[in-house]
Design brief:
15 helices; 7-stranded mixed β-sheet; alpha/beta; 6-stranded mixed β-sheet; globular
Length: about 475
């Protein structure tokens, strides 16, 4: 179905959210143009590229495109965390009591390429590369760009503008200049740097293929996610300043000794460590909040542009994909059409769409942003802690003994599409239950867990 608009819907940003939304809307016949500041070929561009954990929320959006099976060909299932202690002992923590549930590790670049390729098959979708936004006139719905290769300027007219341009969004920046636009950004005192464990002979995996690997070390940590070629993308999360920090590890000798001391098993598997460490950028971790998400039907924000979060629940991409699906569904919602009962996609209709989209996403976006920061401290400080590990065992026990009545916060976030705000609420109740059940169990004996008490606590705190 072709939808006649005087001007195309213009998506700023051709990353994951922009490409997914272009595909979804394009499949329904909307005329779409996507303005992307990066060149088409970006394999050698130093962009941030933390491997991504794809969960049920993201899978649901990809399924809507019709290409989920094709996309999962470039993903590696991860069924749990593999903890690496300082003395190189490995401890496996399954993500779920249900062994069939897992996350997927996927390359940001490969996923982006697939989504864009499928979108570009549509005649009504056009990508414009190497054009950076220089100014946006929200009231007139126009965008001025400059081409990075030849410095030429262009002006694009739009029926509406969708900002999918990331944590430092140009579309959001233009909205912030308007009256009554709330905006905040908060940085962690930690940054991150990407490293690599290469594959072994014949693209073999040198550590467990189906785990997200974590080296927790108190004030810092390293993680590793599998790639389809047998390698692992490692990410060091580390303070910017301090005795042990990015600023203090300023020579090859210091970096090499640091990894020998704190990540001895990984160090043996990282022949390119020093080249990676000094060749790859050190990047910041920011949480962005803004409200409203839209301006008078003229513009709307999606993904990191609306709510950048830190990556410690693996939900940045999944939350952005959930935004895309919610916005897509609002475009299809007949209750928002207006008085004549027909879709007009004029400013009033678009304003209705964007209002409902914000109503359905803002509280959930705030919830996952808060939980992601909490999970950073959990992953960094507690995943190697005996009490923490015991609580995880008790939680899995409760999920087995009380199916559907007790569901962990992690399960709700990663293996369901329940609202993030609901998962946050249930998570607080779950902690009260776990604290009561482990009280006095100093030898961490799972056989001593009182299941009768557990049943009573679930009724009390979860009303189930």
């Amino acid at each position: 179905m072709d939808i006649v608009l005087n001007k195309p819907i213009t998506i700023v940003g051709g990353g994951l959210a922009g490409s997914a939304l272009a595909l979804l809307l394009g499949q329904k016949g909307f005329p779409i143009q996507v303005i992307e500041k990066r060149p088409r070929i970006s394999d050698n561009i130093g962009a941030r590229s933390i491997n991504l954990a794809l969960s049920d929320r993201g899978v649901k959006t990809l399924a809507k495109t019709g290409y989920v099976e094709d996309i999962l060909k470039i993903a590696v299932p991860m069924k749990g965390r593999m903890m690496h202690s300082l003395d190189s002992v490995q401890t496996y923590q399954p993500y779920s009591s249900d062994s069939n549930k897992h996350l997927y590790s996927v390359s940001r670049q490969l996923l982006n390429d697939k989504l864009r390729a499928h979108a570009e098959k549509l005649d009504n979708v056009k990508f414009i590369f190497s054009d950076a936004c220089k100014s946006i006139n929200l009231k007139q719905c126009t965008i001025q760009t400059q081409n990075d290769s030849n410095q030429s300027s262009s002006t694009f007219e739009a029926s509406t503008i969708i900002g999918c341009d990331g944590a430092f969004s140009a579309v959001r920046a233009s909205m912030v200049r308007l009256d009554r636009q709330d905006y905040s950004q908060t940085y962690l005192k930690h940054g991150y740097k990407e490293l690599c464990i290469p594959s072994g002979p014949n693209q073999s995996y040198l550590i467990d293929k189906n785990s997200l690997h974590i080296w927790p070390r108190g004030s810092f940590m390293m993680i590793a996610l599998p790639n389809i070629d047998g390698s692992f993308t490692c990410t060091l999360f580390f303070p910017f300043e301090g005795p042990l920090s990015f600023s203090s590890l300023n020579t090859k000798e210091k970096v090499d000794q640091f990894f020998k001391d704190y990540f001895p098993d990984a160090h043996k598997l990282m022949p390119n460590l020093l080249d990676d460490y000094f060749g790859n950028p050190t990047s910041s971790l920011v949480t962005v909040k803004t409200e409203p998400y839209h301006y008078q039907g003229k513009a709307v924000l999606v993904g990191d542009a609306a709510h950048a979060i830190v990556p410690f629940y693996g939900q940045g991409m999944n939350a952005a994909f959930e935004d895309c699906l919610e916005l897509f569904n609002c475009f299809q919602d007949e209750s928002l059409y207006g008085g004549n009962g027909k879709p007009t996609y004029d400013n009033d209709h678009l304003n209705n769409i964007y209002n409902k989209y914000q109503d359905n996403r803002k509280a959930n976006s705030d919830a996952i942003a808060e939980m992601a920061v909490e999970n950073f401290f959990e992953m960094r400080d507690h995943v190697g802690d005996a009490l923490f590990l015991f609580k995880k065992k008790v939680e899995h026990l409760l999920e087995v003994k009380f199916p559907s009545r007790y569901v962990s916060r992690y399960e709700l976030i990663s293996f369901s599409t329940q609202p993030y705000s609901y998962a946050q609420k249930i998570g607080l109740a779950n902690q009260q239950i776990l604290n009561e059940l482990v009280k006095g169990n100093n030898d961490f004996d799972i056989e001593k867990i009182d299941l009768v008490l557990a049943d009573q606590l679930i009724k009390k705190f979860l009303n189930k």
